[in-house]
Design goal:
The complex is a heterodimer of chains A (292) and B (288). Chain A has helices spanning 15-27, 44-48, 76-80, 105-109, 147-165, 180-186, 200-215, 231-243, 257-263, 268-271, 275-291, and strands at residues 2-7, 32-36, 51-66, 86-89, 92-95, 115-130, 133-140, 169-173, 191-196, 220-225, 247-252. By secondary structure, chain A is of the alpha/beta class. With 288 residues, chain B is of the alpha/beta class. Chain B has 2 domains: 2-60 and 124-284, 3-Layer(aba) Sandwich (Rossmann fold), CATH 3.40.50; 61-122, Alpha-Beta Plaits (2-Layer Sandwich). In chain B, α1 packs across α11. The mean pLDDT of chain B is 95. In chain B, 34% of the residues lie in helices and 27% in strands. The chains are: A alpha/beta (292), B alpha/beta (288). The interface between A and B is large, with 66 and 60 residues.
């Protein structure tokens, strides 16, 4: 079983549209398990029409809570908190749940034992079925921490399922950025497919995300999306990749059919034939020969 | 007035709106020079469009424990109080895992023999400079580091004055709806959501509104970018939720091409300057 993660650094370059298309294409040749690792903006379900089979609470970390009956307003909690999470409203102390990082420093320092730590639910995770295979996905509640932990959880379940099913490919749709959820998304991957746009920011962010996957020992492939939007920049990205010994496996043209397909809730390759679908088909064969 | 530019979904045009808003306000003499903060420390891009001259740079990170072996009795209290498993006592040794540490200081406060000092673990840098009447600041997280929040927090503390007045302060937030986005919105007077009129854009806009309005109680408004592509979902949602659509930027290949080369929109289509100033005035006028 191979594991491929789709990343980009910069957001909105087409990770999910490409993940959905690859799922559609890969499904025709091998058995597949899917994981959406973008847990705070999970969009893969919008184009794969999943049927939810299981839903689980995601319990993560804890938050401090002040018992006003026991609190003597000494203010020590506010002094030790480094996250500005203790709100002092006229010597009535309470914890801002969005700022609290659950370190329990206030809990240990409170002389009146007025603070308790409460386990928090900060999201849900799901096992669903799609026409291309099982999908593991999640929903991190608004503004929550520990997205990396939730990504790890989603991927663990997806991986176990893929091994039990003897699946050929675990396809992971990753989050933007280079931080903790990205690190969780690329851990254990055999290859990262970076989706980049031929823009000044796309190229800048590619270098940083590739630095991240290099750092964690995950080899890279690159897909240039909207390649004809700026041919000179596409060439510059290809040259940068060649210098690093990274293969550009696809160049997908700029075409509003990608958005139309999304509006219809379908992978673009399923929605329409044309230059985009053709480019994605070629890309899938390159990816497949790389995986083999 | 502090405005955070957010979106939920990535790549909808946050940086485009933030940069052009900054340039347009800087060009108008009636505004104090705007302050611009690039809070997308994982992938900071605003400088690619603004080309600021940087005149000050600091390394930032978290204070992580450093154990003095001469004073340590290996009692294990530090490991017991650490909620992140960032410090462990193994026989006659103490292991510290800086990448797991949140810098809360609990281990050092609780150490009975005062054996724990705190030293800076560098996670990135913050910089400030200037360009075209904009006071510019950005944070950059080092590749391989997991935590963006400490960098965003220190960037804000460094450059945002304690009692901001009418001066325009613009924060360009990262994508998503998790904790780094919250940190970028905290303390703002208004959150401007840049979205595209597609199912992905709408799905993530809803979640970003849940954070800004639902969790933080902040007023929000929307900029619809690439207007004309996609469907009517964003318009219907905004009408139902009583969220003002403050600006529309049409789908226009010229805009996308200029963006790809790092050219600000107001340079290619100068008529947008006035529209960005109006956008600011509508936000400052107390849209809810």
């Amino acid at each position: 079983m191979k594991q491929m993660v789709i990343l980009s650094g910069k957001g909105g370059t087409g990770k999910t549209s490409i993940a959905a298309a690859l799922a559609h294409l890969a499904f025709q040749e091998l058995s597949l398990v899917l994981a959406d690792a973008d847990v705070d903006a999970a969009n893969l379900e919008l184009v794969l029409d999943p049927t939810k089979r299981e839903a689980h609470d995601f319990m993560s970390g804890q938050l401090a809570v002040i018992d006003p009956k026991k609190c003597t307003a000494c203010g020590i909690c506010a002094q030790v908190c480094r996250f500005d999470a203790v709100i002092d409203a006229d010597r009535v102390y309470r914890i801002d749940p969005l700022a609290c990082e659950g370190c329990a420093s206030c809990f240990y320092q409170c002389p009146d034992e007025a603070i308790r730590m409460e386990e928090q639910q900060s999201g849900m995770w799901f096992r669903s079925d799609t026409r291309f295979g099982p999908l593991f996905h999640a929903h991190l509640f608004a503004g929550q921490e520990n997205s990396g932990k939730l990504v790890t959880l989603v991927k663990q379940h997806a991986r176990v399922r893929a091994m039990n099913d003897g699946a050929g490919l675990l396809l992971v749709d990753g989050p933007p950025g280079i931080g903790c959820p990205v690190i969780s998304a690329c851990s254990g991957a055999d290859v990262a497919l970076h989706v980049v746009e031929p823009t000044i920011s796309g190229a800048h962010d590619l270098e940083r995300i590739m630095g991240t996957t290099d750092h964690f020992g995950v080899p890279s492939l690159v897909a240039i999306n909207k390649a004809d939007l700026n041919l000179a920049r596409s060439e510059a990205i290809a040259a940068f990749c060649a210098e690093r010994g990274v293969e550009v496996v696809g160049r997908i043209p700029y075409d509003t059919v990608v958005t139309e397909a999304m509006v219809h809730g379908l992978p673009v390759t399923e929605y329409v034939d044309g230059p985009v679908t053709e480019a994605l088909g070629k890309m899938w064969s390159r990816v497949k020969s790389w995986l083999d | 007035m502090i405005v955070t530019i957010a979106s939920g979904k990535g790549g909808t045009g946050k940086t485009t709106v933030a940069v052009n808003l900054g340039l347009s306000l800087a060009a108008e003499s009636k505004f104090t020079n705007p302050l611009f903060l690039d809070c997308d420390v994982e992938e900071p891009n605003a400088a690619l469009f603004l080309h600021p001259t940087i005149h000050e740079r600091r390394e930032v990170g978290l204070m992580v424990p450093k154990v003095d072996a001469a004073k340590c009795t290996y009692c294990g209290r530090c490991a017991e109080v650490c909620q992140y498993h960032a410090i462990a006592v193994v026989g006659e040794g103490v292991l510290v895992f800086p990448e797991l540490c949140h810098g809360c200081g609990s281990c050092s406060i609780n150490c009975p023999t005062g054996a724990i000092d705190e030293v800076l673990h560098v996670m990135g840098s913050i910089e400030r400079g200037q360009v075209n009447g904009i006071e510019f600041a950005q944070g950059t997280m080092n590749v391989g580091e997991p935590m963006a929040i400490p960098i965003i927090r220190q960037l804000k503390r460094w450059v945002i004055p304690p009692a901001p007045d009418d001066r325009p302060i613009i924060l360009d937030a990262p994508p998503g709806t998790a904790c780094p986005v919250v940190e970028s919105m905290r303390g703002a007077d208004f959150v401007l959501m840049v979205t595209e009129p597609t199912p992905f854009g709408l799905h993530d806009l809803r979640m970003a509104v849940d954070v800004a309005r639902g969790e933080l109680g902040l007023p929000v408004g929307v900029v619809v970018n690439r207007d004309g592509v996609g469907d009517k979902g964003v318009d219907e949602y905004c009408a139902a939720e009583d969220i003002p659509i403050l600006m529309r930027i049409p789908l226009d290949r010229r805009i996308a091409e200029a963006y790809s080369d790092g050219t600000p929109l107001v340079e290619v289509l100068p008529e947008y300057g006035k529209r960005f100033v109006e956008l600011w005035q509508r936000m400052a006028g107390g849209y809810r």
